[in-house]
Design goal:
Elements (H helix, E strand, L loop, with lengths): L1 E7 L12 E7 L7 E10 L4 H4 L21 E8 L9 E4 L6 E5 L4 E2 L17 H13 L7 E4 L5 H12 L4 E6 L2 H9 L5 E4 L5 H8 L4 E6 L3 H10 E9 L20 H4 L3 E4 L9 H13 L7 E5 L4 H9 L6 E5 L3
Parallel strand pairs: 8-9, 8-11, 9-10, 11-12, 12-13, 14-15
Antiparallel strand pairs: 1-2, 3-4, 3-6, 3-15, 4-5, 5-7
Helix pairs in contact: 2-3, 5-6
C-alpha cells in the first residue's frame, strides 16, 4: 500500500523552516509474523524533537537522519495484525509518528482503553509521555510535598499545564505559572486553577515571579531555562528543588547561551537542581494511568489541545509549537 511520511531533508540552523522537511509517498510492505499495520489518527510534535534535528550529541536521543522519516508519538488504529493480543480495530500508541501508516513489531505498540468522557488523544498527552513527564518531574525528581509552593515555566504548554494541575491536586499551597501571552495567563488561572500567572514578555521575570509568589517557592518545574531558571534560583527557599525538564529558550540558539549568573546561591540555599529523562521512568506509567485517569474521569483535570489538520501541515505545527503558538498539547490530526 502507498503511504505518506515527513522526512528531514536538511538540518536547521537556528529556527527550523518548512524547507527543512519534505512530504513523500512510500510503498509499505505487508506486515509479517509478529507485526501490525497501523493507520495513524493523531501524531504528536514535541520540543525535544528540535535537538534531534541537529547533528551530533545535542539530544539525549540519537539524531534524526537526513533523508529519512522523522518519528515520534502517535495514536492509531490497527488495520492488520499478525500478532497475538492485537486485532484490527484496536487503538494503540507507538513511536512511528510523522506518517499516515506504519508497519511495526506488535511489541512496539501499546493498546489503550477508552475512558468514559475522556478523549483518546489523552494518551498522547495527560496519559502519555507528556503526563508522565509532569508526574515524574514533580513527584519523583522535585519530591514535591503537600503544602509547598510551586512555580512552573511554560505553564500553558503540554507538560507545564499538567505539572501545575497535578501540583494543585496534590495540595500545593500556591501554584504559579509563566506563559507567553495574556490570553494564556488568563487560561492558567481561569481554566487550570493556578493561583497566579504572568506573561514573561511583560517585564523582568524575577520581579514578576517575586510578586506572584511573595513568600518564595519550594519547587520549580523548569521547561524554559535561561532567565526563568535564574529567577527561580533567586526565589527558591532553603532546600528548594528544581526539576529540570527542558530549556526551550535555548533550543534554536546558534551560539552558546550563558548559564544563570546567580548559580552561587545554590550553595547557600542548599538547592537541588536535577535533570531527568522521562524514558527512564516508564515503570511509573501504571501509577499515572490510575491516578491521573481518575482525575480526568472526575473532571478535576482540564485537557487542553491545539489540533492542526493534515500530515502535510505537521512541519508548520512543529515550528509553531516551538514559537509558543499552542495551548496545551500540540497534535496533528490525520483522520477525522
Amino acid at each position: 500500500m502507498v503511504s505518506r511520511e515527513i522526512r528531514l531533508v536538511s538540518r536547521p540552523s537556528g529556527w527550523p523552516t518548512p524547507d527543512n522537511f519534505e512530504l513523500v509517498e512510500v510503498e509499505l510492505s505487508p506486515p509479517g509474523e509478529g507485526r501490525i499495520l497501523v493507520r495513524n489518527l493523531f501524531v504528536s510534535v514535541d520540543p525535544y524533537m528540535r535537538g534531534r534535528m541537529n547533528e551530533g550529541k545535542s539530544s539525549y536521543i540519537a539524531p534524526f537522519k537526513v533523508g529519512e522519516p522523522l518519528d515520534g508519538d502517535a495514536l492509531g488504529e490497527v488495520v492488520e495484525s499478525h500478532a497475538p493480543g492485537l486485532a484490527p480495530g484496536d487503538i494503540v500508541t507507538h513511536r512511528y509518528g510523522w506518517r499516515d501508516h506504519a508497519v511495526l513489531d506488535a511489541e512496539q505498540a501499546r493498546r489503550v482503553e477508552e475512558i468514559p468522557g475522556v478523549p483518546l488523544t489523552a494518551y498522547l498527552g495527560a496519559l502519555g509521555m507528556t503526563g508522565l513527564t509532569a508526574y515524574v518531574g514533580l513527584l519523583d525528581i522535585a519530591h514535591f510535598e503537600e503544602g509547598e509552593a510551586v512555580f512552573v515555566s511554560g505553564a500553558a504548554g503540554a507538560v507545564g499545564s499538567m505539572a501545575g494541575q497535578i501540583a494543585r491536586l496534590k495540595g500545593a499551597s500556591r501554584v504559579v505559572g509563566s506563559a507567553g501571552s495574556r490570553e494564556k495567563v488568563t487560561h492558567l488561572v481561569r481554566d487550570l486553577g493556578f493561583d497566579a500567572a504572568f506573561d514573561y514578555h511583560d517585564g523582568k521575570i524575577h520581579e514578576q515571579l517575586a510578586k506572584a509568589a511573595p513568600g518564595g517557592i519550594d519547587v520549580y518545574f523548569d521547561n524554559i531555562g535561561g532567565e526563568h531558571l535564574e529567577a527561580a534560583i533567586e526565589e527558591l527557599r532553603t532546600y528548594g528543588r528544581v526539576a529540570m525538564c527542558g530549556s526551550i529558550s535555548t533550543y534554536n540558539a546558534t551560539a552558546p547561551v550563558p548559564g544563570p549568573s546567580n548559580i552561587g546561591l545554590t550553595v547557600g540555599k542548599r538547592l537541588t537542581l536535577r535533570g531527568f529523562i522521562v524514558f527512564d521512568h516508564r515503570d511509573r506509567m501504571p501509577g499515572l494511568i490510575t491516578e491521573v485517569g481518575a482525575w480526568l474521569r472526575e473532571g478535576k483535570i482540564t485537557l487542553t489541545e491545539t489540533v492542526v489538520d493534515g500530515l502535510e501541515n505537521a512541519p508548520q505545527a512543529f515550528i509553531d509549537m516551538l514559537r509558543g503558538a499552542n495551548v496545551g498539547k500540540m497534535l496533528v490530526r490525520l483522520v477525522h
